User: Fold this.
Amino acid sequence: MRAAELASLSTEVAPDRGVTKQLSDQLLTGAGVETIAIQADGLRRLVLQGPRLAQAPYLVDLRDQAPVSWITAPFQTLFGGDGRMVRVIAEPRFRKADFVEIVAPDAELKRALSDYVGRLILVVGFVAGLAGLLVYLSLNLFLVRPMQRITFAMERFRADPDDPASHLEPSGRRDEIGRAEVELDRMQADLRVALNARARLAALGEAVAKINHDLRNMLTSAQIASERLAAVKDPQVAQAMPRLERALDRAVKLASDVLAYGKTQEPAPDARPVPLADALEMAAEEARLLDKAVRFSNEVDPAVQVQADPDQLHRILVNLLKNAREAIEQQAGRDAPGVIRASFVQEPMSGLIRLADNGPGVPDRARERLFQPFAGSSRPGGAGLGLAIARELAQGHGGDLSLADSGPEGAVFELRLPGVPPRLDKPKRARRKKPTAE
Assistant:
């Protein structure tokens, strides 16, 4: 455009503002154009003219290009075909006019655009390759290698949970990788506890299977002896015989269930309406709740019934009451007498049994694994099976057992049993007799 504008100035100094055909061709060839036109004061004038064009050129107006033209015009030149002409309009720089217009072959423009595109591709390729390399190294450093550590730890743990190399020490990161490391560490710890408990249960089950046959024979002998004792005309023996017979019957049934269902599986409950007050009284007797040492306060209405298996409900209540009694008796520096209170709350579709004591409560370290076998005991020498068995039996009924509250004032356990059986018409509450001194 600038070369054509300078060539147009030659007509201003030529005599009569005209140039010869030879000079015109030389000026057009030197500028690389076919035609030069100038518009001034609204009048367009053809300054230098070449041969007539076979086809109309396409227009490129450099004065006011739209954004869409910036993008589409180069592609029009590159892919429009060979031998085309371009008509270009631009503002003049060296003379006073409205615009300068030229018509020129687009071959040189296409070649310049092709070279520019080639350089651009090289630059973009280099930048993209460098960026890809940086991204790869960053991902490998911050994501792939940490994930490889996690995967390696999982594979080693699956092959051998006791392998020290399978333990993954958390790196302390605060992103998702750090969270995954922490959760994997916790999961491995929980699984190790579960596997140890499973191993202990397997060993316990094997031992039970070996002694269960002999135990049933001993219980049979004890039943025969109890039948003979029943024939003795002694008031004290007659008073103690029902408790002995019930305990022997439950022991025989439990031993049979162990052989029938396996060492860790409980039989399905035979749910029926059970008077709750009487069940609590019998469980308190078996848990050895004495009036002088630990007092049992039964605040349940004698007319209340719950839907449960009598034997399994008895086992649940005995475990809960026995744990509460032992916790109170082992509390150091205790002056006040121990009390265990039993109450009942009727809900629309279930019944809620609450057992509250004034003992030391459940330690914080034992709450997280309170209902896990061999892991929830807080007493020295405790096996940690009582609460686990009680909760399993409660869930077998479709209910649940949970720790509702715990603190220095004591602990509160809640036993939820589904179903709302009718109340007793004529409640008869069996009251425990106080032990008499011989």
